[in-house]
Amino acid sequence: MINKWIASLALMLLCLSAQATTIFIVSSYHPEYQWDADYVRAIKENSSSGYEFIQRSLDSKNLPPEQWQQKAAEIVAEIRKTKPDVVVIGDDNALTTVGMEIKTSGIPIVFLGINGSARQYGLGGGSPMTGIYERPFIEASIRHVSKVTKGNLPILVLMDNSTTMQNTVSEKFADQRSVEVQGTQVDILLTNSAREWKTAIAGAHERYRAVIVGTYHTLRHDDGAAFSDESAMLYAQTALKVPLFALWDFSVAPDKAAGGYVISAYEEGKSASRIIRLVLSGVPVSSIASSNSQTGHYIYSKKAMEKWGIQLSPLVASQSTFLK
């Protein structure tokens, strides 16, 4: 009798171990992309040790649409087959191709990095998914840069013409590309042309007192060849004659932007992990309200600051994280 009880207990424990909690992460970009790498790391570091993770990527910054959309279809089929406990959707491309396809599957969905609006994606109250809307702090960044830099010239906000940036700019400024933020004139340029990016960088000092970069990962040469993100930032850092600031923390480094009031992928991942824990504890997704990015952070590279002659006020310096 005792032996049968022990055997039953062992079988039960084996079944429980076989049913480990599974989190399926779908990234819009690629594992090496710092944004993806940082939020995935945050989710894993802020989850229980017993969780099993499956990670898939669309690689939509490198592949043409028809190829990454095919990858999305394959991922949808895998999710339906594996039936994970929760699916995490990273950024708009994964949401529109994977998230929308599985939203009626009954599997809880948590998103982050979404630049579009709830209205745009039909994610109102009672939605089968919830998460974090990524909202770079453009206006706060402009106000910060206008205080750090000298002169009365405008500021240029330069970014690629990706889905991320289109949604980000439209959310704040609609179709305006020349705006005024608390007395500072600002021009906004979205482009996927490497040639136009270089032209804007090379001539920035003639019209602007500073440049703030958004994302720069969908730039291409006239022949269609990719202009890599490393090449884009290297060109900007070496060709610019005015200070270079950033909207995202991954753009701050000694050989990139000097710094700024930035959004952090790791912090976005931490916020998403809190929602994931609620969902896995049994809280219905439909009862968890979505939210925007909570707060930005001052991050600066001391070496890049020296290059551009940037000085921060004692208050901002005390709130800043400095990279060596």
* Radius of gyration computed on alpha carbons: 22 Å
Shape descriptor reads globular
Tell me, rounded to a whole number, the average pLDDT. 90
Terminal Cα separation, in Å? Answer: 67 Å
As residue ranges, the low-confidence spans are: 9-18
Helix-strand string? HEHEHEHEHEHEHEEHEHEEHEEHHE
Instruction: Please identify which CATH superfamily of the largest domain we are dealing with.
Output: Response regulator
Total count of strands: 14
Return the domain count.
2
Structural class category: alpha/beta
CATH topology of the largest domain: Rossmann fold
CATH architecture of the largest domain: 3-Layer(aba) Sandwich
CATH class of the largest domain: Alpha Beta
Assess the beta-strand content as a share of residues.
Answer: 15-25%
Largest sheet: 6 strands, parallel
Q: How many helices in DSSP terms?
A: 12
Major sheet strand order:
2-1-3-4-5-12
Work out the helicity level: 40-55%
Keywords: Signal
Signal peptide: 1-20
InterPro entries: ABC_transpt-TYRBP-like
Organism: Reinekea marinisedimentorum
Task: Characterise the protein shown here.
By secondary structure, the protein is of the alpha/beta class. The chain folds into two domains: 2-135 and 265-293, Rossmann fold, CATH 3.40.50; 138-262 and 298-323, Response regulator (Rossmann fold), CATH 3.40.50.2300. It has twelve helices and 14 strands. It has a six-stranded parallel sheet, with helices on both faces. Strands 7-8-6-9-10 form a five-stranded mixed sheet, with helices on both faces. A hairpin with a 2-residue loop joins strand 7 (178-181) and strand 8 (184-190). The longest helix is centred in the first third of the chain and has 18 residues, at 65-82.
